[in-house]
Amino acid sequence: MIKIAPSILAADPLRIADDVDRIPNADYIHIDVMDGRFVPNLTFGPSVVRALRKHCNSFLDTHLMVESPERFIPDFAEAGSDGITVHVEPTHHINRLLQMIRELGCKPGVSINPGTPVVAVREILDMVSMVLVMTVNPGYGGQTLIRSTLQKVRELADLRSSLGLSFEIQVDGGVTIENVHEYAAAGADVIVAGTAVFGSDDPAAAVERLRTLASRARQR
Ligand code: DX5
Ligand code: ZN
After folding, report:
1. pLDDT at residue 75 tops 90
2. Is the shortest distance between the CB of 177 and ligand 1 below 6 Å?
3. CATH fold for domain 3-219
4. Which residue among 12, 172, 210 has the greatest number of ligand 1 atoms within 8 angstroms of its CB, and so is best to mutate?
């Protein structure tokens, strides 16, 4: 089943709760946390997750684009994240980080940048609920999707079936109604969309459209 995860990076920063209320049909709320070091931008802290936790029952999908992620995991878990995704690039101990996330009661996810091969996460695929394939270089919304990432989704989907695992494959960055069908057909289960949802004048309809196009492509 295809899930849509609108990214609040593209929401109105002065009206995040109102924008979240405009997408009651979203499966996840994707929270892009950036520290200005691992990626050039600076965005949300645990207080935004805490406020969203009080505000809605949606699955809070926290994406940590930060150096030293071990410093941030406890606070984002305590704030109410349902899932916490960390990047493999900024740590020497991805296995330990994923254990930490699970021990704190959150679903662990791992993310790879466009320049990072799938093999970098091969040894921990059995520890994660989700693998996030970045389809842009992280830092900003509204970028153009990097097409070479499509093969990585296919490779992960093949690995998932050959290993008999069931992690979700998530894609994030530059995904629109024009290209979502290719990524769903390749094996993506969770679609992060910021601009395509909050940049439209009817975010709920945009969520439905993305889900319909992705589900149709998956069935083919
Ligand atoms: C990393 C961020 C963005 C954002 C989605 O830069 O993770 O990918 O969520 O961006 P758009 O607006 O392209 O859907
Ligand atoms: Zn993200």
Report:
1. yes
2. no
3. TIM Barrel (3.20.20)
4. 172
